[in-house]
Structure prediction request, 247 residues.
Amino acid sequence: VVIGADYGGATAAKYLRLWSEGTIEVTLVDPNEAFISCPISNLVIGGSKSMADITVSFAGLDKYGVKRVRDSVTAIDADKKQVRLASGATLPYDRLVVSPGIEFMYERLQGWSAGAEGTVLHAWKAGPQTVALRRQLTEMKDGGVVVMSIPLAPYRCPPGPYERACQIAWYLKQAKPKSKLIVLDGNPDMVSKKPLFTRVYNEDYKGLVEYRPGAPVTEIDLKGSTIVTELGDKVRGDVVNYIPHQR
Prediction:
């Protein structure tokens, strides 16, 4: 049994079938019908790719003999070697691969409420929030401010936030050149590819991207669209892209 059908789980399921030449029965559990790639999803936010470009049906695994169960796992009983599903069913296993992806740690952010997910977006799991963040950018007035936060490492895809900053800046430069992007990095310095991103911010997006390292976000004022850093800085945005801490 394989839990989770993103890059890790789907790849494991496919190659367990291939390497065993079909002698091992593999069941893949995931609540979704299709895979939406987080890598490349920043290009949807920037406007050069569509959701169709990054969406692939899991049906492609059928030809390898992978059994697919569209459900969520609620518990693992390691003693009985069973996986319990949200539907109430159980799946027995001899070996278990657990590849569930990330979980957001909103408990670290003061002022947060679950109802805010519709307006303060992370878009760090590709899907509806990817489209919604793109819409927020296109609907923002020229001269608006986008505020983006980067969580303290470790988090999924180290270069991802810096790539996103480039994509947002690329869009703003073309469509809304009077606007500004403020990047609040919770890390003391860039986690990935510092020479590359420093050069791009300073040369291609000079005056458009304001990068602030060592500025972890600790609090949010949802009504005022303002986030507060550990340093006490209050930063308001017309669009706020808060990427939470992750486990």
Helices lie at 7-19, 41-46, 128-139, 160-175, 194-203. The radius of gyration is 20 Å. The first helix runs from residue 7 to 19. The longest strand covers residues 145-150.
